[in-house]
Amino acid sequence: MDYTLITGASDGIGEAAARKFATKKHNLVLVARNESKLQQLCNDLTKSQGIKAAFIVADLSQANAPIHIYEECKKRNLRIDVLINNAGVGSSGEFSGNNLKTELDIIQINCASLTALTHLFLQDMKQRNTGTIINIGSIIAFVASPYMSVYAASKHFVKIFSYSLAEECKLYNVHVMFFCPGLTTSNFMNTPANNNDWGKALTSGANAQTPNQVAGELSMAFDKKKAFHVSGSKNRGMVALSGLFPLRTIARIFAKQKQKQMSLIPQ
Ligand SMILES: NC(=O)c1ccc[n+]([C@@H]2O[C@H](COP(=O)([O-])OP(=O)(O)OC[C@H]3O[C@@H](n4cnc5c(N)ncnc54)[C@H](OP(=O)(O)O)[C@@H]3O)[C@@H](O)[C@H]2O)c1
């Protein structure tokens, strides 16, 4: 039986995506750290949608988590036909002042674990000559973003990895999509690493979508077999506009603007 595996499914965009794909009658494997939330979501979706739903508790900041997830799927005979690499974390603030462990966790969760899960599940998809891998990026992947430096770099990694992989995988009928939300009203900005004055300055005035809206666009992009999609029309406009300027110019303008906002330089 085929399953759609979603990482970071206990909250935010991942949870909304789980609910959306359940209405499309996808069987689900939900991955995150919060066991009780995953258990509750599985029970809810099994009852309300009549699908099969399983969960795996894993901490993707740990290097052995992807192999644990893969082996659990094998052991429980959960064949993964769609992999949605959604789990992601970030931080706001000056890099030199940020906690180094948090910065390295961003790279482990957003880049290394995503890469490992893709490598593991891709082997089986390639053999079966079918499958879909969706990597959740961000519109930050199209700019340089001082004061969110490591997070922005991690999403650039996901972008280049996804674009390249998409072409390699065409030979095996495995579809790869790079899907980019903009600011979303999830708990992403409420984590200790983001919930600070810099986080507020970086997101002030930005247009936000709800996790439900983002999941709706993800579902539409999946149905249309898109290779790339930016969620939200305003975000699509911003990404198009960003392409007109060199990354270094964007970084310079952005840094000056935020430094003024934080009174580090005169207004
Ligand atoms: N929100 C935004 O403004 C925004 C904008 C652009 C892109 N995105 C991207 O969208 C994706 C989803 O973000 P979101 O807004 O839905 O964030 P969120 O509401 O904070 O949810 C994050 C999810 O990831 C899980 N997670 C966090 N750390 C984990 C770890 N170490 N191991 C396993 N799971 C972990 C969390 O579950 P547990 O705590 O239970 O582990 C939760 O289910 C991310 O890739 C993010 O970069 C978000």
UniProtKB/TrEMBL annotation:
Keywords: Oxidoreductase. It comes from the Bacteria. GO terms for molecular function: oxidoreductase activity. Gene3D superfamilies: NAD(P)-binding Rossmann-like Domain. GO terms for cellular component: membrane. It holds the Pfam family adh_short. PROSITE patterns: ADH_SHORT (PS00061). Belongs to the short-chain dehydrogenases/reductases (SDR) family. This is Short-chain dehydrogenase.
